[in-house]
Write a structure and sequence with these properties.
The chain is α/β, with parallel strands linked by helices. The chain has one domain: NAD(P)-binding Rossmann-like Domain (Rossmann fold, 3-Layer(aba) Sandwich). Helix content is 50%, strand content 14%. The chain has nine helices and seven strands, in the order βαβαβαβαβαβααβαα. It has a seven-stranded parallel sheet, sandwiched between helices. The chain is globular, with a radius of gyration of 17 Å.
Protein backbone atom coordinates (compact mmCIF):
# COMPACT_ATOMS: atom_id res chain seq x y z
CA UNK A 1 0.00 0.00 0.00
CA UNK A 2 1.00 3.63 -0.42
CA UNK A 3 0.68 6.21 2.36
CA UNK A 4 0.44 10.00 2.17
CA UNK A 5 1.72 11.65 5.34
CA UNK A 6 1.54 15.40 5.98
CA UNK A 7 3.82 17.07 8.51
CA UNK A 8 6.24 14.22 7.84
CA UNK A 9 9.53 16.01 8.46
CA UNK A 10 9.56 15.65 12.26
CA UNK A 11 7.80 14.29 15.33
CA UNK A 12 4.90 11.87 15.07
CA UNK A 13 4.58 12.32 11.30
CA UNK A 14 8.22 11.39 10.78
CA UNK A 15 7.95 8.35 13.01
CA UNK A 16 4.73 7.16 11.38
CA UNK A 17 6.62 7.33 8.07
CA UNK A 18 9.41 5.20 9.56
CA UNK A 19 6.95 2.64 10.95
CA UNK A 20 5.00 2.31 7.70
CA UNK A 21 8.23 2.12 5.69
CA UNK A 22 9.50 -0.77 7.85
CA UNK A 23 6.20 -2.53 7.14
CA UNK A 24 6.95 -2.29 3.43
CA UNK A 25 4.57 0.51 2.44
CA UNK A 26 5.45 3.12 -0.18
CA UNK A 27 5.37 6.73 1.00
CA UNK A 28 4.48 10.23 -0.14
CA UNK A 29 5.88 12.66 2.43
CA UNK A 30 4.75 16.28 2.64
CA UNK A 31 6.13 19.14 4.75
CA UNK A 32 7.23 22.75 4.47
CA UNK A 33 10.84 21.65 5.00
CA UNK A 34 12.20 20.02 1.87
CA UNK A 35 15.64 19.67 3.47
CA UNK A 36 14.29 17.64 6.39
CA UNK A 37 12.23 15.46 4.04
CA UNK A 38 15.28 14.75 1.90
CA UNK A 39 17.30 13.85 4.99
CA UNK A 40 14.55 11.51 6.19
CA UNK A 41 14.20 9.86 2.78
CA UNK A 42 17.88 8.82 2.90
CA UNK A 43 17.10 6.50 5.82
CA UNK A 44 14.03 4.96 4.17
CA UNK A 45 13.76 2.08 1.73
CA UNK A 46 11.57 1.46 -1.29
CA UNK A 47 9.43 3.98 -3.14
CA UNK A 48 9.50 7.33 -1.29
CA UNK A 49 8.31 10.59 -2.88
CA UNK A 50 8.90 13.90 -1.09
CA UNK A 51 6.78 17.00 -1.74
CA UNK A 52 7.75 20.29 -0.06
CA UNK A 53 4.51 22.24 0.39
CA UNK A 54 3.08 24.67 2.93
CA UNK A 55 -0.38 23.25 3.52
CA UNK A 56 -1.46 26.29 5.52
CA UNK A 57 -2.15 27.70 2.05
CA UNK A 58 -5.47 26.07 1.03
CA UNK A 59 -4.44 26.23 -2.63
CA UNK A 60 -1.49 23.98 -1.79
CA UNK A 61 -3.91 21.32 -0.52
CA UNK A 62 -5.66 21.21 -3.88
CA UNK A 63 -2.28 21.28 -5.63
CA UNK A 64 -1.14 18.29 -3.58
CA UNK A 65 -4.22 16.30 -4.54
CA UNK A 66 -3.78 17.05 -8.23
CA UNK A 67 -0.13 15.99 -8.03
CA UNK A 68 -0.81 12.53 -6.58
CA UNK A 69 -4.47 11.68 -7.16
CA UNK A 70 -3.43 9.00 -9.66
CA UNK A 71 -0.64 7.56 -7.49
CA UNK A 72 -2.86 5.00 -5.77
CA UNK A 73 -2.90 6.41 -2.25
CA UNK A 74 -4.33 3.83 0.20
CA UNK A 75 -3.46 5.47 3.53
CA UNK A 76 -3.88 9.15 4.43
CA UNK A 77 -2.23 10.51 7.58
CA UNK A 78 -3.22 14.12 8.32
CA UNK A 79 -0.52 15.07 10.80
CA UNK A 80 0.54 18.65 9.94
CA UNK A 81 -0.35 21.15 12.66
CA UNK A 82 0.95 23.40 15.42
CA UNK A 83 -0.11 25.40 18.48
CA UNK A 84 -0.03 29.04 19.58
CA UNK A 85 0.46 29.62 23.31
CA UNK A 86 -0.89 32.60 25.23
CA UNK A 87 -4.06 34.41 26.24
CA UNK A 88 -6.54 34.75 23.39
CA UNK A 89 -6.54 38.55 23.63
CA UNK A 90 -2.74 38.65 23.23
CA UNK A 91 -1.84 35.94 20.70
CA UNK A 92 -1.23 37.32 17.17
CA UNK A 93 -4.32 37.05 15.00
CA UNK A 94 -2.20 36.27 11.93
CA UNK A 95 -0.67 33.30 13.74
CA UNK A 96 -4.08 32.00 14.77
CA UNK A 97 -5.51 32.34 11.26
CA UNK A 98 -2.53 30.42 9.90
CA UNK A 99 -3.10 27.77 12.57
CA UNK A 100 -6.75 27.45 11.50
CA UNK A 101 -5.68 27.12 7.87
CA UNK A 102 -3.28 24.27 8.71
CA UNK A 103 -4.97 22.48 11.61
CA UNK A 104 -8.53 22.72 10.26
CA UNK A 105 -8.75 23.73 6.61
CA UNK A 106 -5.95 21.47 5.39
CA UNK A 107 -7.35 18.46 7.25
CA UNK A 108 -10.84 19.20 5.93
CA UNK A 109 -9.80 19.68 2.30
CA UNK A 110 -7.38 16.76 2.08
CA UNK A 111 -9.71 14.38 3.94
CA UNK A 112 -12.62 15.18 1.64
CA UNK A 113 -10.66 14.87 -1.59
CA UNK A 114 -9.04 11.54 -0.77
CA UNK A 115 -12.09 10.14 1.03
CA UNK A 116 -14.07 10.39 -2.20
CA UNK A 117 -11.40 8.33 -3.95
CA UNK A 118 -11.26 5.80 -1.12
CA UNK A 119 -15.05 5.41 -1.20
CA UNK A 120 -15.03 4.92 -4.97
CA UNK A 121 -12.71 1.91 -4.60
CA UNK A 122 -14.23 0.91 -1.23
CA UNK A 123 -10.95 0.66 0.62
CA UNK A 124 -8.46 2.88 2.40
CA UNK A 125 -7.36 4.18 5.79
CA UNK A 126 -7.49 7.74 7.13
CA UNK A 127 -5.60 8.63 10.30
CA UNK A 128 -6.33 12.17 11.47
CA UNK A 129 -3.89 13.31 14.13
CA UNK A 130 -5.78 15.34 16.73
CA UNK A 131 -4.84 15.47 20.42
CA UNK A 132 -6.30 14.58 23.78
CA UNK A 133 -6.88 18.36 23.83
CA UNK A 134 -9.60 17.73 21.25
CA UNK A 135 -11.74 15.87 23.78
CA UNK A 136 -10.96 17.90 26.92
CA UNK A 137 -13.23 20.88 26.25
CA UNK A 138 -11.94 24.44 26.32
CA UNK A 139 -8.19 25.04 26.44
CA UNK A 140 -7.23 28.33 28.11
CA UNK A 141 -3.76 29.56 26.98
CA UNK A 142 -3.98 27.22 23.98
CA UNK A 143 -7.48 28.19 22.90
CA UNK A 144 -7.06 28.07 19.12
CA UNK A 145 -5.18 24.77 19.26
CA UNK A 146 -7.75 23.05 21.49
CA UNK A 147 -10.57 24.34 19.29
CA UNK A 148 -8.82 23.17 16.12
CA UNK A 149 -8.29 19.67 17.48
CA UNK A 150 -11.90 19.48 18.67
CA UNK A 151 -12.87 20.22 15.06
CA UNK A 152 -10.69 17.35 13.82
CA UNK A 153 -12.21 14.97 16.38
CA UNK A 154 -15.84 15.88 15.64
CA UNK A 155 -15.40 15.93 11.87
CA UNK A 156 -13.70 12.53 11.91
CA UNK A 157 -16.33 11.02 14.19
CA UNK A 158 -19.08 12.18 11.87
CA UNK A 159 -17.29 10.70 8.85
CA UNK A 160 -16.88 7.42 10.75
CA UNK A 161 -20.62 7.08 11.31
CA UNK A 162 -21.44 8.00 7.72
CA UNK A 163 -19.05 5.29 6.51
CA UNK A 164 -20.44 2.76 8.98
CA UNK A 165 -24.00 3.38 7.81
CA UNK A 166 -22.93 2.70 4.23
CA UNK A 167 -21.17 -0.52 5.19
CA UNK A 168 -18.01 0.96 3.71
CA UNK A 169 -14.65 -0.75 3.93
CA UNK A 170 -12.97 2.65 4.32
CA UNK A 171 -11.63 3.18 7.84
CA UNK A 172 -11.08 6.46 9.69
CA UNK A 173 -9.22 6.79 12.99
CA UNK A 174 -8.39 9.70 15.29
CA UNK A 175 -5.06 9.82 17.11
CA UNK A 176 -5.36 11.73 20.39
CA UNK A 177 -1.97 11.76 22.13
CA UNK A 178 -1.10 13.66 25.26
CA UNK A 179 2.38 15.24 25.61
CA UNK A 180 4.88 13.69 23.19
CA UNK A 181 8.62 14.37 22.91
CA UNK A 182 8.68 16.30 19.61
CA UNK A 183 9.40 19.88 18.52
CA UNK A 184 5.72 20.72 19.13
CA UNK A 185 6.29 22.74 22.31
CA UNK A 186 9.34 24.45 20.82
CA UNK A 187 7.24 25.84 17.98
CA UNK A 188 4.49 26.83 20.42
CA UNK A 189 7.06 28.62 22.57
CA UNK A 190 6.52 26.58 25.74
CA UNK A 191 8.04 23.59 27.55
CA UNK A 192 6.49 20.36 28.77
CA UNK A 193 4.93 20.48 32.22
CA UNK A 194 5.16 16.67 32.39
CA UNK A 195 7.40 14.13 30.66
CA UNK A 196 6.18 13.40 27.14
CA UNK A 197 5.77 9.97 25.57
CA UNK A 198 8.32 8.68 23.09
CA UNK A 199 7.23 9.73 19.61
CA UNK A 200 8.14 6.42 17.97
CA UNK A 201 6.12 4.48 20.56
CA UNK A 202 3.13 6.70 19.81
CA UNK A 203 3.60 6.16 16.07
CA UNK A 204 3.75 2.37 16.43
CA UNK A 205 0.63 2.32 18.59
CA UNK A 206 -1.19 4.64 16.19
CA UNK A 207 -0.40 2.60 13.09
CA UNK A 208 -1.33 -0.68 14.78
CA UNK A 209 -4.63 0.80 16.02
CA UNK A 210 -5.39 2.31 12.60
CA UNK A 211 -5.03 -1.04 10.84
CA UNK A 212 -7.30 -2.59 13.49
CA UNK A 213 -9.98 -0.04 12.57
CA UNK A 214 -10.02 1.66 15.96
CA UNK A 215 -11.85 5.01 15.94
CA UNK A 216 -10.41 6.82 18.99
CA UNK A 217 -6.70 6.18 19.66
CA UNK A 218 -5.38 7.28 23.06
CA UNK A 219 -1.73 6.19 23.47
CA UNK A 220 -0.51 5.69 27.02
CA UNK A 221 -2.28 5.02 30.31
CA UNK A 222 -2.22 8.67 31.41
CA UNK A 223 -3.84 9.83 28.18
CA UNK A 224 -6.55 7.18 28.45
CA UNK A 225 -7.19 8.16 32.07
CA UNK A 226 -7.37 11.86 31.21
CA UNK A 227 -9.89 11.23 28.43
CA UNK A 228 -12.03 9.12 30.76
CA UNK A 229 -11.90 11.50 33.74
CA UNK A 230 -12.91 14.39 31.47
CA UNK A 231 -16.39 12.85 31.35
CA UNK A 232 -16.70 13.12 35.13
CA UNK A 233 -15.29 16.60 35.76
CA UNK A 234 -17.54 19.69 35.77
CA UNK A 235 -16.72 22.03 32.88
CA UNK A 236 -15.60 24.99 35.02
CA UNK A 237 -13.34 22.78 37.15
CA UNK A 238 -11.83 21.31 34.01
CA UNK A 239 -11.13 24.82 32.66
CA UNK A 240 -9.35 25.77 35.90
CA UNK A 241 -7.24 22.61 35.86
CA UNK A 242 -6.37 23.05 32.19
CA UNK A 243 -5.31 26.66 32.75
CA UNK A 244 -3.02 25.66 35.63
CA UNK A 245 -1.54 22.82 33.60
CA UNK A 246 -0.80 25.04 30.61
CA UNK A 247 0.49 27.91 32.79
CA UNK A 248 3.12 25.54 34.19
CA UNK A 249 4.62 25.27 30.70
CA UNK A 250 5.85 28.88 30.71
Amino acid sequence: MKALITGASSGIGRDIAIVLNKMGHDLVLVSRSGDKLRELSKSLKGNVKIIPLDLSNPNACFELYEMIKDDGIDILVNNAGYAAFGEFCQTPLETELNLIDLNIKAVHIISKLFLKDFMAKDKGYILNVASVAGVLGGGPLLSSYYASKAYVVRLSQAIYEELRRKGSNVSISILCPGPVDTNFNERAGVRFAVKGMNSLDVAKYAVDSMFKGKLMIFPGAKTKAGAFLRRLAPEKLLLKLTYDFQKAKE
